Amino acid sequence: MVAASPMYRVGWTMKKFNATMINDIWPETAFFTLIATAVAIITESNIHNLAVGSSLLTVLGTGLGLVISFRTSSAYERYQEGRKMWSNIAIASRNIAQIIWIHVPLERTDKDNNRLTTIQSVIEKKSMINLVQGFSVAVKHFLRGEIGIYSEDLYPLICWLPCYANATGPKTAADMHEEHTLHTDSMDPEKALTTIQSHRPLKPARNPPPASLLDCFPFLRIFAIFTRCCRRKRKHVRRDALGRKIESSITESSVPLEITIYLNSYLAYLLRNGWLQPALATGLVNNIASLQDALSNLDRIGTTPLPFAYQAHLRMSLWLYLLVLPFQIVSTMGYMTIPGTALASFLLCGFLEIGQEIENPFEYNENDLNMDEFCCAIQRELHEVAAYTMLDPAAFVFTSWNQPFAPADRRNAEELTRMPEEYRHADHPDVDPGMASIQRTLLKNWRDVDLITRQQSII
């Protein structure tokens, strides 16, 4: 499949522009271009010959290019691994939901002879599926350093758990009339959740750090470092993975880990009462373990960057290379040194910045993984699982809509079951009825499908 290039799609917006590296590398590109301009003008105007030998240019350029390529490829490998872990979460969530919804019985009696009605069983199973949905949302906030449960997309899913529920119960509409929430611009997916009101204002599902002047002019960060060193030492302020100040929270435990503990407790509850077969229990255990494994791997990716010494040395080496590049090529390129240096700095600094941006793909940058969409996809799939009713196969198999032996025999299941004798193919009445005739039909079915599909593939 050939994917459409985003460079040729209609309608460039500021969001697409921010997804490129131009906004991050233009100060460096402009700086090295100015150096090249000064070198070219001074040399070509015969003010002073600034040209130097270029014997090391090829060797240093090749080595530096290989190191930058390794930096970018290692960062992309982390990006791909993060995406695979989210796929594992989606698969395990679907499997857990299907086991709970389909295989846990509705009408049941526990070992203490307490009978659960159908509505109680449905509420119980749907609540556990909501808990599975809450795991992916909790992982998203965990990776972004947003501790606690007070988010618009997380709180409605897990506020009923004993460790988070308030003793006085949720707020009423009258209580909420006297307060203001922190944000009013919530995302549309939160409208599909329950309307439980928290005793604390809820943060929005997407809470990126505010944009600042340093985002548009990255070179000004050097002045921020100097001013920070000159300030009086203040009390240490805790900050999250995105650099935002962490407010004190009632609970700062690992919410995804606690959700898996409740899922395992529910599994133990089902096994104690004999409501789940051992094979299905093994599958449920393996899928819960898959959630925990994905959480650990995602945390490893997000909290293990490349060593600072490696990144700093690579960037300083690149700056030194671009700084001396105009002096080495001005004797042969003349005024073309200016665009040549600009192009070299744009390419090399761009690749280096790409590696740094996708190294941690769990933030709010335009090139990071769209974890909000992943959570919404899991939400849709789990609701789809719970939408299916557990029907007897006879209710939908033996109907006029089902043609089980097509294309060899296009009679529907209702006609076949009304036959007064065993199955006999309409085109081969001489064949003995029963399984032999069915086998002949299936053999013809295979031949017809093989012929039709091969002809289509040739065309």
UniProtKB/TrEMBL annotation:
Subcellular location(s) per record: Cell membrane
A Pfam family matched in the record: Bestrophin_2
Keywords: Cell membrane, Ion transport, Membrane, Transmembrane, Transmembrane helix, Transport
GO MF term set: chloride channel activity
Bilayer topology term: Multi-pass membrane protein
GO CC term, one of those recorded: plasma membrane
Bilayer-crossing regions: 50-70, 318-338
Main location, first listed in the record: membrane
Organism superkingdom: Eukaryota
Name of protein: Uncharacterized protein
Origin species: Mycena sanguinolenta
